[in-house]
Sequence to fold (128 residues):
Amino acid sequence: MLKKGSKLNSILTGSCPKCQEENMYVDPNPYHLKKIYEMHEECSHCGLHYQIEPSFFYGAMYVSYALTVAIGVAAFIIAKVFIGLDLIASFAAIIIALLLLMPVTARLARNIYINIFVHYDKEAAKKK
Fold:
């Protein structure tokens, strides 16, 4: 499922989308909130510059919006349908889920967004 060369591997691990050899983030743990958005300038393995153009990752906000809507809907359905909570408690479950998953959502949105534009390159992975 997470074999090297797949988009899913790069998205879920936060690795360079071109060579998938290095983590794009300075700190791989998204719950270190002070360093949540700190990224390396470029991949030390293949040289891919992560900030493709100025303000490149502003587009990830749209991906983040879609992810948070999906999480909110899933949290509501789980709370209301499967657990049987009332309406107010179900909305509280949405808020709690979104707050707890915010760091993961933020990084996942960036990973998805850069993987839309950059594709895996076997030759780049063989470098060094």
